Amino acid sequence: MDTGVALPSVVEIASGRELTGWARSAEELGFSTLSVVDRLVWPGYESLTALAAAAAVTERIRLATQVLIAAARADVGVLAKQAASVHRLSHGRLSLGVAAGVRRDDYELTGTGFHDRGRRLDETLATLRRMWEAGRVAPESDGPTPEILIGGRSEAALTRMARFGDGTVVVGPPPAFAQRARRALEVWAEHGREGRPRLIAQTYFALGDDAREAARDHVGSYYAFAGPHAGRFVDATLTTERAVREAVEGYRKAGCDELVLIPCTSRPEQLQLLAAVVKEEL
Fold first, then answer.
1. Is the peptide bond between 67 and the residue preceding it cis, with omega within 30 degrees of 0?
2. Which residues is 261 bridged to in the sheet?
3. Residue 14 pLDDT > 80, yes or no?
4. What Rg value do the Cα atoms of the chain yield, rounded?
5. Are the beta carbons of 137 and 131 closer than 8 angstroms?
6. Which SS3 state, helix, strand or coil, does residue 104 take?
7. How many domains does the chain have?
8. Domain CATH code at residue 87
9. Angle at alpha carbon of residue 249, lines to 276 and 176, rounded to 5°
10. Other C-beta atoms within 10 Å of 16: how many?
11. Where residue 136 falls among pLDDT bands split at 50, 70, 90?
12. Structure confidence at residue 142 (pLDDT)
């Protein structure tokens, strides 16, 4: 199982130097992927812009949106060009993860419809593939187009994965991941897809003396829109070395191809602390 880490692109207000320093360190420490979470109505960096910055200072590590709220982007042509440009700038390292999302305010900001977002996401994915394959929106490249990953908790999201994607992104503990992964494989086969989808898990982490406080401050704020349910996300955050090790083992046993850990703080020592715990995976 590969082990990746997210950029702190929506944590606190990291400077550009801190963001690119984190990207360099993640690659040097051997993490497989550098991902970004996506939210428009939030004081953080725009996802593809953050990955473009990371692409400029790294050479090997995979770059991923996990996941981009693509249907809230009103102009599909601009999105196609942005993603293809990051892919080309990084020499083919972009994985474009997308989902419909659950936050109405992101859609209100861009003037896009919330209730029909699933249908429009399907249309967006079909258009992205068509634009990329036509080669009209990006610099010329002999390599493959970006990998597409599909997030979301619904059955429709798995159907979307089988129709348009190369894998799925699952948020939840190992037992929930295992159940979702089994269903993903079933839906993949039902749609006549060859091989198998890539199965990716995400979870939050914070390590060190103030780990619980960092989890409460960031995760609690980020999921405040969920009301009283926000506490569940805080409680699920991995805040001890033992919790991280148990999670790694649990996801591996559940058939996970890659586990991506999302930081609750932009302090650079978090990368070193995490790498020391998961060093056997790197």
1. yes
2. 5, 203
3. yes
4. 18
5. yes
6. helix
7. 1
8. 3.20.20.30
9. 125
10. 10
11. confident
12. 59
